[in-house]
Task: structure prediction
Amino acid sequence: MEKILPGSSELQVSRIAFGCMSLGDDHRHNSTLLKKAFDGGINFFDTADLYQKGENEVSVGKAFKEMRKEVVIATKVGNQWKEDGSGWVWNPNKDYILQAVEKSLKRLQTDYIDLYLLHGGTLEDPAEETLEAFELLKQEGKILQYGISSIRPNVVRRYTDMAQLTAVMTQYSLLDRRPEENILPVLEKKGIVVLARGALAKGLLATKPASGYLQYDASQIQKLQNGLEALSGPDRPVAITSLLWLLARKSVIPVIGIRTEDHLNTAIQALDYSPLSKEEIEELDTLFLPQIYQEHR
Result:
């Protein structure tokens, strides 16, 4: 259930990543949870300078300061907080990235970042300049690899055409199969790792009561949840089934937002289950039909 993140190091990366965005404000509690994740077999941790105005990175840095070489850390750049803290603006410019990475390194208490992701993207970005910044940081050893985080197919295609990215983070789950149309084929062809955020669709593919999601209304979600529960059976939680469906794609690493020990236990347990059978995957594919992007095509 492990793979090597292409080009980063010889360190093996767990097939499930810990999404740190859901962590709270208590650094001590966060550190305990992060270290339990590592002890349970997860060594890939995703954060961003945007989360909690940098305090999320601080939590990750505190937890792994003494064991930095044993974990893989991804963080993101591009959303610049306003001076008054009232919000942020999009800034993919080279000068800003070169300044922002220094602050991330300090908060993470490290001298390198395993994977640096552009935290968004538009067709109006100065992409050449953005990629120059990433390449410079790679040459300097401050980052090992880079990629982008985007749900826009046209942006993903633009950046993957211009550079050899290591990974692309995008929203992907049984309830959001839009990437299958024109994002996943591009990434799979180029050997780019897919970091699937929203893997449990805000808990709707776990234990959360039915509510509207994307094009589905609550009644449709309820029917899908019932079908997922029936396919899972009594011995496998529906959240595990949902994660195993993602893990059936060898290029996909689910990024699970974790705030509690229950969330963590679900992620760890998924690593111990047997893969879904071909028949189970086909049943899920039939129950949860693909969609297409209506914008940014």
